[in-house]
Design brief:
The chain is an alpha/beta fold. Helix content is 28%, strand content 23%. The structure holds guanosine-5'-diphosphate (GDP) and zinc ion.
Amino acid sequence: MSKDKKKVRVEMRKNRAKPPRGNDLTRDYQADAASTDESHSSERVRAKGDLSRHRTVVQDATADEPGRLSTGDAIRGRVLRVHGLASVVEADDGRIFRCAVRRLLKTLATDERNVVTTGDVVWFRPAVVEVAGRGPGIGEEPEPAVPEPSDETEVGASGPTPDPRSPTPAEGMIERVEPRHGELTRASRRREQVLVANVDQVAIVISLVQPTLKPHLIDRYMAAAEKGGLKPLLLLNKIDLADPAELQPMIGAYAQLGLPVLLTSAQTGTGIDRLREQLRGRSTVFSGQSGVGKSSLLNAVQPGLALSVRSVSEVNNKGRHTTTYAQLLRLDTGGWVVDTPGVRQLALWDVRAEEVEGYFRDFRPFVALCEFPDCTHTHEKGCAVKGAVARNLLSPRRYHSYLGMFHGTEAE
Ligand code: GDP
Ligand code: ZN
């Protein structure tokens, strides 16, 4: 793949019920991708019998590098949500497209479960050019018209099957995915699944009462944020029900760890302006236990925001399990809120025992001083972390959180 372009001759298998194995590498890749998709989604279009056809597709060999798109009519956008095989993409100019993913991108670019995920920055071509034009698409040979959507396009993977020949400007084909930063992931069948990409920060929402504050949860979210490369932001909500003066020691402790702390009340509006400021121009995921006030805060930031979360999932539900999918919601003031049903529960934030130490930044100066290089800071002699706790150089509460996470006993 040293040249910019490569031509790939692919056999399009029509019946993928039994993917052939061992013929060649490409086939194996395709079979893997197909079976993965099928296990992930019940919305896949039907296979079309035993027909087989060939097509040649030109793609950027360096497709993963930014700024290398060579042909002119691709549009840049952000994936708002993914339903089955269709991605809802908002173009930079605000237009909404329903996009499929080019098969070659799926099979050649990566073996990830989701090639395209919520939050991805993608380049796509409007389907009008490619599917409805009836001439050869970009870089493609003419192909026999088929009465159903082709496997290649996979447009209309969920919902009623559209006629692939009718010009539907709101559809498109994703050609390329920009490199990601800031990911929310979860382990899924031994693989890591990216739920949301390009998230900048996580707003850790904690309520002081109803439900009562659980400091170890803050440490857990902070570790998870660190793991995902996200900037944490602490929202202490429902301060109308608490005495802010009593909170000062804790606020100070977290501020010392470099964690910005906002006192908010969705009820009285305290701190909402400052929250809005923190959200501007960034992609933020709201995390926290059920009942802490995430929806209320979203609505306080922008009236109707939490409601639109609900209506979007209702509209798309129709018996499908779309609620497991994350979605992006645009803020009027600029920026995005990531609505991630699963992330609200802590189950997603898997951190392995041996990783935990690395996510406690305040431990780092001491870790190097432990007597044993593989010290777990739990029972070892000569542990500098334990020593620091004893001398109050490290917070006993943080150390307690560390132990809980290390032993996996504080998953919630
Ligand atoms: P979520 O599950 O995190 O989305 O929490 P909700 O937004 O649904 O809020 C849970 C409950 O807490 C609701 O009854 C809200 O009215 C209440 N609530 C949310 N924020 C505040 C707040 O700042 N102060 C008070 N007193 N109640 C709040
Ligand atoms: Zn140690």
